[in-house]
Amino acid sequence: MAEEDINLEEALADGEGHTLASYVQSAYGRSEDARYDQEKRWITSYRNYRGLYGSDNQFTESEKSQVFIKVTKTKVMAAYGQITDVLFAGQRFPIGISSTREPEGVAESVHFDPNEKSAPEMQSPYGFPGDGNELQPGDTAKSLGDRIGEAAKKALGLELKEGPGLVPTAITFHPADIGAKKMEKRILDQLEESSASKHLRSAAFEMALFGTGVLKGPFAVDKEYPMWEENEEGKVVYNPKMVTMPKLEFVSVWNFYPDPDAKNMEQAEYVVQRHKLSNSDLRGLKKRPFFDSEAIDECIEMGTNYVRKWWETQVEDEDSKSYSVDRFEVFEYWGNIDRELAEDAGLDIPDEYEDLDTVQINAWVGNGKILRLAINPFVPNRIPYFAAPYELNPYNFYGVGLAENMSDTQQLMNGFMRMAVDNAVLAGNLIFEIDETNLVPGQDLELYPGKIFRRQGGAPGQALFATSYPNVSNQNMQMFDKARVLSDEATGIPSFSHGQTGVTGTGRTAAGISMLMGAAQLSIKSVIKNIDDYLLQPLGEAFYAFNQQFDYDEEIKGDIEVKARGTESLMRNEVRSQRLIQLMQIGSSPTLAPFIKFPVILREIAHAFDLDAEKFVNDEREAVRQAEVMKAAGMMPQGPAQQAPQEQQPKAPEGGGVPAGNVTGTGNANIGAATPVQPEMPEFSGQSPVFPKGLQ
User: Fold this and answer.
1) Pairing of β 228-230 and β 270-277
2) Quick count: other Cβ atoms within 10 Å of Cβ 339?
3) Sheet (strand 241-251) strand order
4) Which of 230, 250, 365, 651 is deepest in the core (most CB within 10 A)?
5) 679 pLDDT more than 50
6) CA dist., res. 19 & res. 24, Å (int)
7) Which of 292-306, 394-408, 535-549 shows the lowest per-residue confidence on average (mean pLDDT)?
8) Domain end marker among 358, 389, 404
9) What is the reported pLDDT for 689?
10) Which of 303, 308, 305, 306 has its CA nearest to residue 320?
């Protein structure tokens, strides 16, 4: 039982001002005791990764070799590399925002026809960033004007009509999509400011090694942006700008203590995070909101209290007799507590919680002092931690890592390799027998090159006999290879995928390699799916809720949904990109073009090529503007009427059918290849064609 595991009844009777602190320490101790067996498995995984034998490994006198073959490290790094390659294939954080299929409170689509009224030729119907004419997604008002933005109507001088345009010259756009795109850019920018990619990679590494990766956020912090300004005296001085923004951070699984009765974060009643803080770290907490400066000073005056856990000496590779360090141990608690206990601790309960028996709080406790106490600010209430398993264990909060899956095969490989080395050493040296009766007494019997023995009797060669030891190391290495194959099956990571040569059996053929790679991708796919479900999806929803609650920019709000894009990256391959290109070619026919969403296809092609669609593909507004610029510069491709005569001559395809130049088709003939719609043609509208809802 841990020292901190205090009975709740005892905690409540501990004295005024310490009941909440004792409660937090009790919750921490309960979680610590519950995960003890899990910690032992983590230590085994860590040792196998580092190539270290524990004190429980006892070697006999005959076992001279203590070699450790670090196949676990190779497998873990291979899995970690595949995970990060998939997650960041598109060179962006794998979270997306899109409008719902039926947006509420905002117009699904609006259009106008520039031929109905005169309008500036270069004027975009959407407005351009910074010109004050951007389309506003609106809010929940019922009128069309409120839902499309008055600024856009005034700038255009045109009457906007709800629904898609039905004539070739009409331009249609979607206010809900614009709001979703702005929200996505806002969240991705916030994630980039938090170095979210780095934190996600750290979580992915602990997933592969220990079985669980943890992220924390978003929570508000003040970030300092360097700025230099000229003062009244004309001198340039440093005047940083402080901006409050949401932050995301990685939390090591070693410092993460969830509710032991929960199987996932949705079931968790509380979470305790253990902090190891220096004196300056503790004083720095005074700058953060709701921290008690007096309590922090009292905590510091009481002195450092951090004591290493049993596992820390293993992880940190420290062989020290003293387990204490010059640091403070601070517990951060998120979860539900009894309302009366919170009030006794001095928490001001808002009126909306009057009818509740429990409240959700955030408390920091150090040296028995309450350093911070505040109501959970998030609406709806949520604990800001996300834990994703490498391999889901339905009966435990923590997942199963790759290192644990191959623990047995790692022991086998070490054992066979030690036997092979010891046997090779014996076989490579002669074993001598010495007949001391034929030698002069009192001689040193140690053998070394140039050694001279004095003989007093017997025939020459009878005093010393040399014998060789049989070499069976090949048999041991065969067993080592079998153990390695078992490790491939246990982890789903084939050896050749991380540079292992000499693959035998099925893996020697192209079909066999393809099969093994398919199996490896399937294994990683399940891991990525866990990351999507338990990490990225709830994390994206948390950032969305944060902006909905604390960001007052109405342009980013609307009826939108969050999508995790981890698994989506597994579909980015050559086959998919080729099919998308073929679909685009089919849609080049004017007859089929209205049924094809060209902007969507272009973005999907960019994703298939592992490119950031935001950087390389224009949206509808940018497409209209770019078309006008290219038209004015004479850079547009020639239309059908301007092509050379020989280019217009139809070619009969093999196997019959209509010539390639037959765009529309006649009689019973099939539709052949067509010429893409050009910007100067009447069918071109600067964006994907739209059609009546009845045809959608």
Assistant:
1) unpaired
2) 17
3) 241-251, 212-225, 385-389
4) 365
5) no
6) 9
7) 535-549
8) 404
9) 44
10) 308
pLDDT exceeds 70 at position 620: no
User: And the tokens for 476?
Assistant: 């041991």
Choose among 310, 370, 316, 360: nearest CA to 339.
360
Q: Does a structural domain hold residue 143? A: no
The pLDDT of residue 139 is 37
Tell me the three state secondary structure of residue 217. Answer: strand
Q: Which of 512, 692, 500, 671 is nearest to 586 (CA)?
A: 671
Are 254 and 393 within one domain?
Answer: yes
* Number of neighbouring beta carbons within 10 Å of residue 599: 17
* CA 339 to centroid of chain Cα atoms: 37
380 upstream amide cis, omega within 30 of 0 = yes
Angle (CA) 512 515 521, round 5°: 140
> How far is CA 655 from each of CA 648, 649, 658, rounded to the nearest angstrom?
21, 18, 10
The verdict on 305 and 398 lying in the same domain is: yes
SS3 content of the chain, % helix, strand, coil (to 5): 40, 15, 40
Confidence class for position 319, pLDDT limits 50, 70, 90: low
Strand order of the sheet with strand 171-173? 161-162, 110-112, 171-173
Of residues 212, 272, 270, the one with CA closest to residue 393: 212
- 621 lies in some domain: yes
- The phi and psi torsions of 601 (rounded to 5 degrees) equal -65, -40
Identify whether residues 309 and 400 lie together within a single domain: yes
pLDDT, tens digit (0-9, with 9 covering 90-100), for 105-157: 666 677 666 666 544 443 444 444 444 444 444 433 334 455 454 434 443 44
**In the beta sheet, which residues pair with residue 388?**
213
Q: What are the backbone dihedrals phi and psi of residue 241, each rounded to the nearest 5 degrees, phi first?
A: -100, 125
Work out the burial of residue 606: count CB atoms within 10 Å of its CB; fewer than 13 is exposed, 13-18 middle, 19 or more buried.
buried
Which helix H or strand E contains 147, and what residues bound it? helix 144-148
Mean pLDDT of 161-187: 74
57-66, 373-382, 432-441, 553-562: lowest mean pLDDT where? 553-562
Q: What is the 3-state secondary structure (H, E, C) of 377-401?
A: CCCCCCCCEEEEECECCCCCCCCEC
Q: Are 400 and 53 in contact (CB under 8 A)?
A: no
Query: With bands split at pLDDT 50, 70 and 90, how would you rate the model's confidence at 444?
Result: confident
Dihedral, 382, 388, 391, 397 alpha carbons, nearest 10:
-40
Question: Which residue from 622, 651, 657 is spatially nearest to 128, judged by alpha carbons?
Answer: 622
**In which residue are the tokens 């856009």 written?**
152
Closest-CA residue to 619 (of 202, 90, 19, 135): 135
In total, how many domains does the chain have?
Answer: 3
- pLDDT tens-digit map of 634-667: 766 544 444 444 444 444 444 444 444 444 444 4
Q: Are residues 235 and 374 in the same domain?
A: yes
- Would residue 92 count as lying in a domain? no
CA-CA-CA-CA torsion for 153, 154, 157, 160, nearest 10 degrees?
10
pLDDT at 136: 46
- Say whether both 642 and 506 belong to one domain: no
129 burial via Cβ count (<10 Å: 0-12, 13-18, 19+): exposed
On whether both 243 and 322 belong to a single domain, the answer is yes
The last residue of a domain, from among 459, 490, 523: 523
586-608: pLDDT as tens digits: 877 877 777 777 777 787 777 66
Residue 40 domain flag: yes
By the 8 A CB rule, do 83 and 208 touch?
yes
Residues 259 and 290 in one domain: yes
Question: Whole-angstrom Cα distance, residue 215 to residue 324?
Answer: 28
Strands 430-434 and 270-277: unpaired
| pLDDT tens column, 236-280 | 888 877 777 888 999 999 999 999 999 999 999 999 999 999 999
Domain that holds residue 415: 408-523
